[in-house]
Amino acid sequence: MPGRAVYVVGDLHGRADLLEQILEEIDRDIGETKAQNPHLVFVGDYVDFGPDSAGVLDRLADLTTELPQNVTCLMGDHERMLLDFLADPVIRGPRWLRSGARPTLISYGLPAAELPKAPGPDTLIELAALLKSNLTEERHAWLQALPLSWSSGNLWVVHAGADPHHAMTDQSARTLLWGHPEFDIGPRPDGVWVAHGHQPVEEPALRDGRIAIDTEAWTTGRLTACALRPDGNHRFLQT
């Protein structure tokens, strides 16, 4: 388990309201348990589907700026798709739009509700330019710098999963962001525990070397965090 108290927070997908609620739950738990120097790790997928991706990104960026030693935000596949859209809107835009991007564009003041189902190249290029401008250079740079993993002790936190046949230090970016077909086969041979989001579950679970916490907050209203202690104890917190 980790070398310090850790709170791992699941996929937010534009639910700035639930982010505030889970931060309150975490603060309450820290007070009750008297956790020393706790670390918060967000597993990625801050944007898309939900109504306030802009608010989520602003709040998380502020947290990492104010508490750089205590808050880590990982990159999820939806942040990767957003960045890919900005870099190559014509090729990468259609996939992102099919993956819940319209509410994100709307949260940044763009008229995405009026978009046709399959926007043309000129429209995609214009959208990317407008989004990049409204996002700001500072937030764009923050997104680009998001790490793919965080670790403490034998705990690793990633967005989607890991290849059980490779050491955690030798995982590909694609696997960490999108998962691996053999991730769920059983405990890893190296004794590592992997906390992750990406794969929606009805209830959070800690078993067989995996900690699954994506309770699809954007649609269920249940955002999950897992509180982990150096002694191996854990507790799930929910909104």
Description:
This protein has 239 residues and is of the alpha/beta class. It has nine helices and ten strands. A five-stranded mixed beta sheet has the order 3-2-1-9-10, with helices on one face. The chain has a five-stranded mixed beta sheet with strand order 4-5-6-8-7, with no helix packed on it. Strand 5, helix 8 and strand 6 form a beta-alpha-beta unit. Helix 3 (77-87) packs antiparallel against helix 4 and helix 4 packs across helix 6. The chain starts with 5 loop residues before the first strand and ends with a strand. The relative contact order is 0.20. The model has no long low-confidence stretch (mean pLDDT 95).
Question: What key phrases describe this protein's structure?
Answer:
239 residues, alpha/beta, Purple Acid Phosphatase, chain A, domain 2, 2 domains, five-stranded mixed beta sheet, 38% helix
Name the CATH superfamily assignment of the largest domain.
Metallo-dependent phosphatases
- Secondary-structure element order, N to C: EHEHEHHHHHEEHEEEHEE
Cross-sheet strand order for the largest sheet: 3-2-1-9-10
What is the third-level CATH name, the topology of the largest domain? Answer: Purple Acid Phosphatase, chain A, domain 2
Q: How helix-rich are the residues, as a percent range?
A: 25-40%
Structural class: alpha/beta
Could you provide a short overview of the structure?
With 239 residues, the protein is an alpha/beta fold. The protein has helices at 16-33, 53-66, 77-87, 89-98, 102-107, 121-135, 137-144, 173-178, 217-220; strands at 6-9, 39-42, 71-73, 149-152, 155-158, 193-196, 205-207, 210-212, 224-228, 234-238. The strands form 2 sheets. It has a 5-stranded mixed beta sheet with strand order 3-2-1-9-10, with helices on one face. Strands 4-5-6-8-7 form a 5-stranded mixed beta sheet, with no helix packed on it.
